[in-house]
Specification:
With 205 residues, the chain is an alpha+beta fold. It folds into two domains: 2-88, no CATH class; 97-204, no CATH class. It is built from four helices and 13 strands. It has helices at residues 2-13, 22-29, 53-63, 156-163; strands spanning 36-38, 45-47, 68-71, 77-81, 84-88, 97-99, 104-107, 113-119, 129-133, 139-142, 174-177, 180-183, 198-204. It has a four-stranded antiparallel beta sheet with strand order 6-10-11-12, with no helix packed on it. A four-stranded antiparallel beta sheet has the order 7-8-13-9, with no helix packed on it. Strands 3-4-5 form a three-stranded antiparallel beta sheet. The radius of gyration is 23 Å and the shape is elongated.
Length: 205
């Protein structure tokens, strides 16, 4: 799911290249005051008046500077926020709790994401985020819960609103030891145990 969203965000965020060749010639020969666009297969000029309401909404979304959203087929939502495009699924993922077993890799709910808890020497060189820790702590990765706060009192909900894409917030992993939140990957709320020979890492592809 998130791979689709990332792909859509990257592809739709690129500037559109202008048409060349026949399209330019037809635009030059078009009557003044009448806008035309090329139909990609038939080569037929189509009046811009035939653009559907949904296509107009998508165009407005791409051009708008503020946060906006358009509902697509199947209740998927294309949302623009912080100058990026995100494709949100019609259903929210369920909450999760995953106990981390030393020396083993754990597949996370976000597609393509994995976690590892073990000796630093066995960590992946391509890991995205790392948290130094001690062995035998009984660590777990879980989804956010209502009322979650860091040890400094900061609300996780506020942190997610500012730093985590909307469609990933219910799947974003939080590292805990019992009821205590130790670390949120990608947020950097805690430096962990400096000089530790063990590590928790999160990898995303």
């Amino acid at each position: 799911m998130s791979c689709i969203a990332d792909h859509e965000a990257r592809s739709l965020d690129r500037p559109l290249a202008p048409h060349r060749g026949r399209a330019d010639a037809q635009h030059r020969s078009a009557r003044p005051g009448v806008a035309h666009s090329m139909a990609p297969r038939s080569g037929r000029a189509v009046s811009i008046g035939r653009v559907t309401r949904r296509q107009g909404e998508l165009l407005h979304l791409l051009l708008a500077g503020e946060t906006r959203a358009v509902t697509l087929a199947g209740r998927w939502v294309l949302r623009k926020a912080n100058s990026q495009l995100w494709l949100e699924p019609p259903q929210q993922p369920p909450p999760f709790v995953m106990d981390l077993e030393p020396g083993r890799r754990t597949t996370l709910p976000i597609s393509g994401w994995m976690a590892f808890y073990g000796p630093t020497a066995e960590a992946s060189p391509s890991s995205t985020w790392r948290y130094p820790c001690q062995p035998g702590q009984g660590l777990a990765l879980r989804s956010a819960q209502v009322g979650d706060r860091l040890t400094n009192g900061a609300a996780v909900r506020t942190i997610f609103k500012n730093k985590v894409p909307r469609h990933l917030r219910r799947s974003w992993p939080i590292l805990c030891c019992g009821a205590k939140i130790l670390w949120i990957p990608g947020v950097g709320n805690d430096t962990g145990s400096s000089g530790s020979e063990w590590i928790v890492e999160v990898m995303r592809t």
